[in-house]
Specification:
54% of the residues lie in helices and 15% in strands. By secondary structure, it is of the alpha+beta class. It has 3 domains: 100 residues, Butyryl-Coa Dehydrogenase, subunit A, domain 1 (Orthogonal Bundle), CATH 1.10.540; 107 residues, Butyryl-CoA Dehydrogenase, subunit A, domain 2, CATH 2.40.110; 153 residues, Up-down Bundle (Butyryl-CoA Dehydrogenase, subunit A, domain 3). It has a 4-stranded mixed beta sheet with strand order 1-4-5-8. Helix 5 packs antiparallel against helix 7 and helix 7 packs parallel to helix 9. The chain is globular and about 80 Å long. The two termini are 26 Å apart.
Length: 381
């Protein structure tokens, strides 16, 4: 698979996705209630075959879906992404019984998944999580504590929950559990966020789980979390690239038509150079996202570094491009309901979730120095 260009059929598929997002998904998104799961939108994603594709293809396909949907309908992109994030651990690490029970419903949109890793005191430092899984008889635990900033909470039908089964063991004492929403003692509250996606808290009051609910192996849940994030971090970058491209396209149209100082805005060199810079950065971020996704799909050894780089560059780039687009549009871009007002609110969060930009820089540096330690001071390979 080429790392830096798409095959003609892939480009055609992306164009088809942008059309579907505009014609079939955006109308459903506009009927949704802010901050609530949009189940009709999820069902349509299932009917279009996009939810099944989350688990039937690789990282590059995931990135192409997220970028294409984000360009025309960020709500559809986010619904797809949150479903994949919450259910991927079941697909990759679940038992046959777990997969057979939940994945068909996930892929047709009738069951909604959540990914419950972050806590009030453990966001970027995921290894410091404190949700306690206390032993409860042979092969059982009781979960007690709180999760915060959780995708699709509190309305999700099940959650991939990461809890501490061995106190004091850091990342090595965490277990991943599949927890259905109807378990006794599990409650939640919606959060009112800057961009109104379904995000909330989950409270665990001695919620019962057993070995049948474990995803992967006990005390190895941190690996489940990191493997999931290594897949989804480049696709967060793809989401950002889709938003950056939408902002760039809007800016090209606006500056070509807007009268200013006896000509068009685009005739001003400062404006033309700004648009060129926006395009340059967007394309560079896109190529890095595609390269990271291809590295994941081909089993390259440096996936964590590439994934971190892709997320970091693309999300920071999208923030820059959207902000520049707002500036070039002027006050109209700040009006509620304008595309850029929408993107301005949407673009901020990806620099934080699934590892803030500062965390990505730490991962990149750690991987670089680990490679240096393996090769020696002379850098001989």
């Amino acid at each position: 698979m080429p790392a830096f260009s798409l095959e003609p059929e892939q480009s055609a598929w992306c164009a088809e996705l942008r059309t579907l997002a505009a014609d079939r998904l955006r109308p459903l998104a506009e009927k949704g209630e802010p901050g609530r799961i949009n189940r009709p939108l999820l069902a349509e994603l299932g009917r279009l075959g996009l939810l099944p594709r989350l688990f039937a293809s690789g990282a590059l396909d995931l990135c192409l879906m997220r970028e294409s949907l984000a360009h025309a309908c960020t709500e559809a992109e986010t619904a797809l992404a949150l479903q994949g994030l919450g259910a991927h651990p079941v697909h990759a690490h679940g038992t046959r019984e777990q997969r057979e029970r939940w994945l068909p419903r996930v892929t047709d949109g009738s069951a909604v998944a959540a990914f419950a890793l972050s806590e009030p005191g453990a966001g970027s430092d995921a290894a410091a999580l404190s949700l306690a899984a206390e032993p409860d008889g042979p092969g059982g635990w009781r979960l007690t504590g709180e999760k915060c900033w959780i995708s699709n909470a509190p309305e999700a039908d099940f959650a991939t929950v990461f809890a501490r089964t061995t106190p004091g063991a850091g990342a090595r004492g965490v277990t991943a559990f599949l927890v259905p929403a109807d378990r006794p003692g599990l409650t939640g509250t919606a959060l009112d966020m800057l961009s109104p996606h379904p995000i909330g808290t989950l409270a665990f009051d001695a919620v019962p789980v057993t070995t049948a609910d474990v995803l992967g192996e006990p005390d190895r849940g941190f690996r489940v979390a990191m493997a999931t994030l290594n897949l989804f971090r480049p696709s967060v970058g793809a989401f950002a690239v889709g938003m950056a491209q939408a902002a760039l396209d809007a800016t090209l149209t606006h500056t070509a038509r807007r009268d200013a100082f006896g000509g068009k805005l685009r005739d001003l060199q400062t404006v033309a150079h700004q648009v060129a810079e926006m395009s340059l950065r967007t394309e560079a971020a896109r190529l890095m996202v595609y390269a990271a996704a291809t590295a994941y799909d081909t089993g390259a050894p440096d996936v964590p570094r590439r994934a971190a780089m892709a997320k970091l560059l693309a999300t920071e780039t999208a923030q820059y491009v959207v902000d520049a687009a707002v500036q070039l549009h002027g006050a109209r871009a700040l009006c509620r309901g304008h595309l850029l007002e929408h993107l301005y609110r949407e673009v901020r969060a990806p620099r934080i979730y699934e590892g803030a930009s500062e965390v990505q820089r730490g991962i990149i540096a750690r991987e670089l120095y680990a490679a240096e330690d393996r090769t020696g001071p002379e850098g001989v390979r």
